[in-house]
Amino acid sequence: MDVIQECMKMISYGGDAKSLALLAIKQSRDGKHEEAAATMKKAEESLLKSHQAHTNLLSYDAENQDLHVTIFMVHAADHLNAAETVFVLAKEIVLLHEEVKQCLK
Amino acid sequence: MFKIALICEHGASTGLCARKMIEAAEKLGIECSIAAYSDSQLDNIIENMDCILLGPQLMFKEEQFKHEYPEHAKKITVINTMDYGMMNGEKILKDAVALIESLKK
Known about the structure:
Structural class of chain A: mainly alpha
CATH class of chain B: Alpha Beta
Oligomer: heterodimer
Number of helices of chain B: 5
CATH architecture of chain B: 3-Layer(aba) Sandwich
Distance between the termini of chain B: 16 Å
Largest sheet of chain B: 4 strands, parallel
CATH architecture of chain A: Up-down Bundle
Number of strands of chain A: 0
Number of domains of chain B: 1
Radius of gyration of chain B: 12 Å
CATH superfamily of chain B: Response regulator
CATH class of chain A: Mainly Alpha
CATH superfamily of chain A: Phosphotransferase system, lactose/cellobiose-type IIA subunit
Shape of chain B: globular
Distance between the termini of chain A: 55 Å
Structural class of chain B: alpha/beta
Number of helices of chain A: 3
CATH topology of chain A: Methane Monooxygenase Hydroxylase, Chain G, domain 1
Number of strands of chain B: 4
Strand order of the largest sheet of chain B: 2-1-3-4
CATH topology of chain B: Rossmann fold
Order of helices and strands of chain B: EHEHEHEHH
Shape of chain A: elongated
Number of domains of chain A: 1
Largest interface: A-B, 22 and 17 residues
């Protein structure tokens, strides 16, 4: 297995998910709720792909137990972690924006 | 001579990507200088670059950068998530060169 490749997948899809989640917040702030929902859906898909790469690494190590941890792997895990945090919070913030807009009507 | 800068948060994953691109450039015989920088260095380098490639994890900052450097907005672009994840140096390089060529016209 190409460890660096899996790490790169974690970083790029994780970053993608984070960017999309932040975009969804902006869209919902502008009152574009349907667009925001679609963007969050895309963010979720990217997050899943990032997770999949992480899972690949974990299951490889469970099987072979010879994976050496490098700073680059830690960096990749950091990206995934950040993406997940932002995604979960973005979900809440999008809902919050929706409710606020409803109240202001 | 094409001057290409890759930007990400710490220059870690783009550093790897830059290496792949340099390999591709040597293979294809394209004369260029490619290096990875952190986003905090952008201010110092943007003036001298033909093209600024952002890692997909920085997609959410694209608008901000374009806003901060309106005169350089056209040369800022985000690397395709799939190409970045697969570290397809050749494709990323070709896209960057195509962008630079289109700007020269």
